[in-house]
Amino acid sequence: MNKNLLYFLLGLFFLDVQAENDIRIVNKDKTESPVSPHLWGSFYELGFGRSDRLWGEELFNRSFENTKPISKSNSWYNSFSGDIKEAKWLHSGYEEPTWYLWNDGRKDEKLPLVSQEYWPAAHGKYFIQIDTKKAKEAILLVQDRIYVKRGKKYNVSGLFSSGSYLSEEKYSSHTVPVSIAIHKEGDLQSTLSQTELQINTNQFTMYNAVLPAMDYEGWCSFTVKVPAGYKIGVDLLSLMQDDVISGWRREAVERIKNELHPRTMRMPGGCFASLYNWRNGIGPREERPVSYDTWWGCELLNDVGTFEMVDLCQAIGSEPFFCVSVMFNTEYNAAEWVDFCNNPQNEQRIAYGHKEPLNVKYWELENEPYRKFDAITYAQRCVAFAKAMKAKDPTIKIAMGNYWVFNKKFKEMLNIAGPYIDLITNRGGTIEEMHQDIVILSEYNKKHGTNIKLCHTEFRAPITRNEGNTDGLNQKETGDETLFNASVRWKFAMNAVEQYIAYQNMGGHFFTANYTNLSDGWGECLINIPKEGTYLNAAGVAFSLMNSLDIVYPQVVEFEKADPNLVVQAAWNKERDKLTLVILNFNSSSQKLRVDYSQLHKKLKLDKSFRISPESGLSFNSLENPEKIKIDTVKANSRKLDVDGMSLLVLELSEK
Predict the structure, then answer these.
(1) Whose C-alpha in 92, 120, 333, 564 is 20 to 30 A from the C-alpha of 33?
(2) Banded model confidence at residue 17, pLDDT cuts 50, 70, 90
């Protein structure tokens, strides 16, 4: 063999050997107690982004209340600059189609809105009045951009009046035949499905019907047709697929249950929690008031409230985690919410059809209390709230916040509220700060015989990894990438996994981290719900894999050569007969690892191997390509690993 060629091959051999990194799994627990089974939580924020896409309603602005797009009233929208249509996270679920009239073959965007101000009363401040008494042809109320599924029936409803609105008589002197129909979008002459309502009441009354299933799937227009010669009032229209799960989109709920399965679900906010009145979200929907004074400046119909969130949690196997207004409400109001949910004899809940208690266990006191209180005043308020709430149900668990400016006063806050609370939420604190919180909590718990745990009720991963000044908002003002464009990408999902591993390594001291958001929070979410279907984004795919792992006792891992871009988690299950190895490679190039299991003193066999390894850290899922980032089952050698650059590799090994 040519000597130069031999030297070249030897050089490649030694380079390959040098590139390997030995890791040793030490049979020693990292944590004092097992990892919380509630760790992987999520969050449903009312009135923010398009999280309401998870709700099964097909119509936008069904009560004719939104006078400005949510994107203009929500300041977080400004985190995306430029043409919104170019946003990486945008899909059809963010559309805000406007109502219009089809009159005499022409489109009329000036709606005949009636402002109630004081009366007559329908729902909210406005309703539509369609007057065809002088018309020669029918007039149609239309909304485009409706996506219908083949073979599905649709329930339709609305508040209608055919009379004077104000009368001593319930029934009007005449009946108006109103047609509700679905058409192919833009073709109002051909009808795909139709039903008819006979409107004959003076006051606004709820009418219901069913649109027959269609042998068609695609974009459609929804119409309410009023024949010539009549006048009617219309409000609170609804179009909902007939196979929804307690009002939630079936496909999305099933994917959340089977793939994501968040263990806790926080609601109603976020900022909206500070102004939320839980009474607005109970009872028949036509009787629920519109909430106008929301934090984001957009109207909320309160379709989703206490019952709906509990129904969702039951459907996906999660625990509800309600956030109580403290800044602008009283402890008595909070206590009455607890009673409504958990008192077996609560008359109002029973009257609304829920005989059995809802058993809501977890309650958070305020969203961002530093907006109004100093740390000590807030802690004192927490005492008053906790006493009143636990008087109704002493088994509930209550969370107090110690984040941002309050963290400097954490010890003093704990000394005031410690006897009355069960959880501390440090939203946005660094991992180092949280470790200090745990030290303080451990000392307090040991001294007072309590068991207060740490949590993170609005978890956002850092946009930039290892950024020293990262806070819980992770706002990104400069550069080519905006906050929400960055949030859909694989490298952001890897950052989230690294953070969750850090929470795992806090063991039982850390209770839950509620990922913000579950669905469509202006890009930052786990599952996206366009009108055409559903898909997990990058964080959702990673969340799905990690949350499925049986990680209970994290073990010490030693590196031969330290590499800050390699994050390794090794953990036993509860019985300590199954080992899970998680490897995050933040390097752009693949890394060779040799794993030494000898100190475990057990013979292990490889059962399964999973990998998430997209093209790059900038990859993201979309409606057009929903599996650009996906979980692959792969073959692996458990002792000699070749880990792709910017990837997540998981090995599950069991005792022989």
Answers:
(1) 564
(2) very low
**Distance, CA of 236 to CA of 63 (rounded, Å):** 4
Q: How far apart are CA 54 and CA 50, in angstroms?
A: 8
Q: Is the peptide bond before 517 cis (omega within 30 degrees of 0)?
A: yes
* Residue linked to tokens 């806050």: 413
Please tell me the pTM assigned to this model. 0.94
Q: What is the mean pLDDT of the chain?
A: 92
User: C-alpha distances in angstroms, 346 versus 351, 357, 389?
Assistant: 9, 8, 15
* DSSP state for residue 256 in the 8-state scheme: I
Q: Which residues contact 190 (CB under 8 A, 6 or more apart)?
A: 183, 184
SS (H, E, C) 401-436: ECCHHHHHHHHHHHHHHHHHCCEEECCCCCHHHHHH
Q: Omega of the bond prior to 270 within 30 degrees of 0, cis?
A: yes
Rounded to whole angstroms, the Cα distance separating 70 from 79 reads 14
Enter the DSSP assignment of 404: G
Cβ of 303: how many Cβ atoms within 10 Å? 18
Task: Please give the DSSP secondary-structure letter assigned to residue 248.
Answer: B
What is the maximum alpha-carbon separation in the chain? 108
Six-digit token string for 225: 């047709």
Q: Say if residues 425 and 455 touch (Cβ distance below 8 Å).
A: yes
Using the structure block, give the residue that is written with the tokens 């015989």: 449
Q: How confident is the model at residue 86, as a pLDDT? A: 80
**Alpha carbons 489 and 406: distance in angstroms, whole number:** 32
